């Protein structure tokens, strides 16, 4: 469970992750109902054209930060 414990992880999941995923999937469904031609890539079609590059940069930075956390965690486990 890492540094936080079970209860804070459950709270974060139900308060942040689950609503975010629900909004994303419901938004994709609404987009596809309104424009069936968006079936090829509905996630990126949700963004306005001007926000696409900043969203890609943000996603790339989030992936880099997450990979660094995985590397640090693996290193900590091997040092124990």
UniProtKB/TrEMBL annotation:
Residues that span the membrane, as ranges: 12-31, 51-77
Protein origin, superkingdom: Eukaryota
Span of domain K+ potassium transporter integral membrane: 1-80
UniProt GO cellular component terms: membrane
Keyword field contains Nucleotide-binding: no
InterPro entries: K+_transporter, K_trans_N
Alphabetized UniProt keyword annotations: Membrane, Transmembrane, Transmembrane helix
Matching Pfam families: K_trans (PF02705)
Any GO molecular function: potassium ion transmembrane transporter activity
Protein family membership: Belongs to the HAK/KUP transporter (TC 2.A.72) family.
Protein name: K+ potassium transporter integral membrane domain-containing protein
